[in-house]
Sequence to fold (465 residues):
Amino acid sequence: MTINFRVSLTCCLGLSALVMAAATLSERSNARAAQDDQPYVNQHYPDFGFLPSPLEYKGRVFTLSQHYPKTEPPASERPDFLKIDFQKNWRDYLLAAQDYCFKDNVLGGDVADDFDAAIKDQPTWFHVPWQHCGPNGREGVHGLTKEAPVAPQQLAISQSHQGGQMYAVAIYNHFGGYVIGKVWADKDKPNAHDVRFPVGTVVMKVLFTDVPSTEVPSLENPLKWNAYVTENYLATNRVFKEMTLIQMDLMVRDERAPHGWVFGNYQYNGKMNNANKWKNLVPVGIQWGNDPDVTDGTWGGYTNPIPVVTRRNPHLKETIINPDDNELPPTHLGWNGRLNGPADNYLSSCMSCHMTAQSPTKSPISPLFQPADKVPSVGSTGWMRWFQNLNYGERFDADKPTSSMDYSLQLALSLQNYYQWKDAAHRTIAARYRDEQLNPVGEDVTEDYEILRSQPVELNQINPR
Fold:
């Protein structure tokens, strides 16, 4: 029997198409060849999952920065901004950290050329692999992955757009790149044990939305990237869209932080009118703990789903929010005023989500992402499990067989994607054949076969590089 699979080249490029796309990038190919003799992990993971065929698309193409350092960088190379007291001088810390992130990534020309980490002969920033597959996987223009939906009035009271979505790309400095390389040193046997990011690790992520900038006052004078994204959040078909910068996230492994990590957030405010539009990302605030003693289940008046004004909670001791309303646009923040950005859930916080990073995943990133009958009441003991203070490298589910990803949700997702692909690939091969010669044990694969026949098979999930 012949089984005909529907394969969409406009969704996921096969190996030959990826090779054709790579041929248009001679500079990057030469740079990669020159790096083969350098002390880097060099596994050639897939760059992306979604882009039209090279016969149809001739624009810029995203390249994964994956030549990870094989040795941990010395302490002398830690960022200078770690000398700033992040509690007493939180604003200076965040602005200096932003400058550190922009130094190698913002080139001063066309913004479309910025954050292109892989093109450097000696890379200083790195991506996490295995973000290319699945319906939310990396698109091939800037390497953006689908992050979250955007509800009406989430960004501003004047925002009425339905079906809005967030896309993002994150990069890790060489301290973080070293750990990514350790986890993914063997492309067939990733090592998820004892993941600990060294002091000096910096992770930054820029987030873009397709909500019309005309509906959100802070997005005037916008910074835009063109990207190959889904038509809306619920859609699966991909289209080219202009995406507007709205947020930047920051994670810093700082030895002075009580639990090992400092989180920062920045929101775009076009009214700042900086010549360098990336600098219109103004500090929202900083967080180094979850304030587990602030348990007010009535929301305390500080949780703010529709951001007419920014509501700051004076009872928080481990979050500082920018007090300047002239600089910071109205924003909803996180639960009870904890740090979160406009793209994030107003009933969560930066640390609350990231501390759940594990492999395999055992708990969702929010108590809300459970069956309705299992969602704990706000402020209860069950709810506050997501607002405890967890030290770096500790497991969120210490009573279950899982490994901590040390606050890195991207690492957790990369491992989840890999193992799901591996399992699906095995089942796909088994389900293709039904005769006795190829299925001597007589296993009944009828159900799997019918499922496969009714679903498209994406090339990058069958034959990853």
Remarks:
- The chain has a mean pLDDT of 86.
